[in-house]
Amino acid sequence: MKLLSLLLVMFAANSCNQTTGETSTDTAMSKDPVEVPASAEGMEKAYFASGCFWCVEEIFESVKGVEEAISGYSGGETQNPTYQDHADHAEANEIIYNPEVVSFETLVDVYFASQDIEQVNGQGPDRGKSYRSIIFYQNDQQKQIIEDKVAALESEGYDVAAEVKPFTKFWVAEDYHQDYARLNPNNGYIQNVSIPRWKRFAAKMPGVLKEDVSH
User: Where is the Peptide methionine sulphoxide reductase MsrA domain (predicted)?
Assistant: First the structure.
């Protein structure tokens, strides 16, 4: 009984959540991407899914030119997804960035540098369709940038697992998920998964990091 309890605690400390979505089926998305207009301040938005959104949020918020990363759900057609039931959606992040400081192409580089490029339906200990990797495009230019990067990685021998999909809709996750790593630095998952993942990324792309960011 004690062994079972220990295993349950270890699982909780090393998993972003227990909703894998593996029993859900994907619904075909629209073939036409939705382009999000720049804000009055000139900020643009990009959308990525790459495992646990807590990890991805922390990674992108450490990049120069990124104003904010928001955790949520995207990639499916189910309306009003929740943390308990996001069905065909993946955990995703909305990246609000200044294109004068950081380009979409660099954000794509950050995306691939911060993940296991070949892991299907998950990242690290987080496994299931709700953790699948998806890189979204809003226009033909973004699609070409993504396809060129994928082609370059494949030429290096990688079997790229990330899906490339048109962006259609982003659903913001519940408030308690926002800035989760920053607000819960001693959480077991953050200590054992998020921080090591961030450090691996930081070692690959130190030049894109904000000056005041560290672990």
Answer: 45-190
